[in-house]
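Fig. S4 source data, part A: sequence.
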Amino acid sequence: MAEKGDCMASVYGYDLGGRFVDFQPLGFGVNGLVLSATDSRACRKVAVKKITLSDAHSMKHALREIKIIRRLDHDNIVKVYEVLGPKGADLQGELFKFSVAYIVQEYMETDLARLLEQGTLAEEHAKLFMYQLLRGLKYIHSANVLHRDLKPANIFISTEDLVLKIGDFGLARIVDQHYSHKSLLRTNITPRLCGSLADM
């Protein structure tokens, strides 16, 4: 299984050395491909997002995303463990020296989009998820961050304990602290999420 996963990493151009094994495709974030893997050092399953740094534009986007995710720490935000360079090198803030960066983050089993494809949520589950979503949004706004891509596919769920976490900050921005919180909420929520919340 590990050999198959390592082959999968090669197919997608992942080069993190021998620490991460058993790679499997998860999906695409705004700025890059995401694979699941096992971190043999920490003995846990993780999600690894690969960001290609091909030009000044991609470098700017990567720097902004990394700056934002490093300042967020909350129960309802997908936890980022570390940001690495090729062969698992520690970036140490010198992103410009590398052609690729890897964001190693918490693995979540599914997302709200997949859950809603299975049908309408039970009322108690809908209330639980709504509470956690608003709690996460309140924290993000308190950190003066605008997500800008809040949709069901970026709202992740742990099926074991029904914990909801907001992820994929590829389009996020840091805003002025005097920016209206009402404007923050209006700009954060996509039309698809509004429809999904109604379905919940």
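Fig. S4 source data, part B ends here. The beta strands are 20-28, 33-39, 44-52, 80-84, 100-106, 110-111, 145-146, 155-158, 163-166, 173-174.
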